[in-house]
Amino acid sequence: MKLKITDRDALIVVDVQNDFMPGGALPVPEGDKVVEPLNRYIEIFEKNGNPVFFTRDWHPEDHISFKGHGGIWPPHCVQNTEGAKFHPDLKLPLDNKFIISKGTSRDFDAYSGFQGTILDDLLKERGIRRVFVGGVATDYCVKNTVLGALNLGYQVFVLEDGIKGVDVNPGDSEKALNMMLLKGASLINIDDINL
C-alpha cells in the first residue's frame, strides 16, 4: 500500500552541506548521490504545502568536535564558510522552508537536529505527527535525528534512496539502519509514496 502525504507530515533533510560531500573537509562517500532523490521528495512536499526542514552543522571555529579542540573530526561546516553551505544543487523551496542550525556553540556537539534547536517546537506548532528523514550521514546525524524524533513521539520514515553513510568502521551504516528500525522507524523509498 502506498503512503499518502497528509498535512500532518514534514520532511527533514539532514546536513546536505558541502563539507560532507566528496572533496569536502569531512566527506561522506558518494554523499552527493542523495541530492537528486532528496530534490524529488522536496518537490512532493513543497507541492503539497508541507514544511521542509533543513538541518545543518553550523560550528564556531573552535568547536569541541574538532581535532584541535578535543574532538575526533577535522574542522568542518564552520559558520559562514563555503563548506557550511548547502550543496549547490539542493533545491530549497521558496515557502515553508526552515533552516535548523545545530552545534552552534563551542562546548556543545549535536548529531541530532533536535539537540539544542527549536525543531521539535516548530513541528509541534504545525501539528506534525510524521517525519520523513533523509540526508547524511546515515550512521551519525541521520541516525541521531531519527532516534530523537522517535523518542519525541513522531512516526518516522527513513528515506532509503536519500541517505548515505560515512562508515568510519565497516558496517556502521547498516548497524545504524538496523537500530533505527528496531526503535520503530520504517524504511521507504520514493516508490512507496502516492504521488
Give a quick precis of the structure.
The chain is of the alpha/beta class and 195 residues long.
Structure description:
- With about 200 residues, the chain is α/β, with parallel strands linked by helices.
- It has a single domain, classed as Rossmann fold.
- The protein has four helices and six strands; from the N terminus they run E-H-E-E-H-E-H-E-H-E.
- A six-stranded parallel beta sheet has the order 3-2-1-4-5-6, sandwiched between helices.
- Strand 1 (about 10-15), helix 1 and strand 2 form a beta-alpha-beta unit.
- The radius of gyration is 16 Å and the shape is globular.
- The two termini are about 15 Å apart.
Number of strands: 6
CATH architecture tag: 3-Layer(aba) Sandwich
Q: What distance lies between the first and last C-alpha atoms, to the nearest angstrom?
A: 13 Å
Biggest pleated-sheet summary? 6 strands, parallel
CATH topology type: Rossmann fold
Defining traits:
Rossmann fold, 23% helix, six-stranded parallel sheet, alpha/beta, 4 helices, 19% strand, single chain, 195 residues
Give me the secondary-structure topology:
Layout: E1 9-14, H1 35-47, E2 52-57, E3 97-102, H2 119-125, E4 130-136, H3 138-151, E5 155-164, H4 172-182, E6 186-188
Parallel strand pairs: 1-2, 1-4, 2-3, 4-5, 5-6
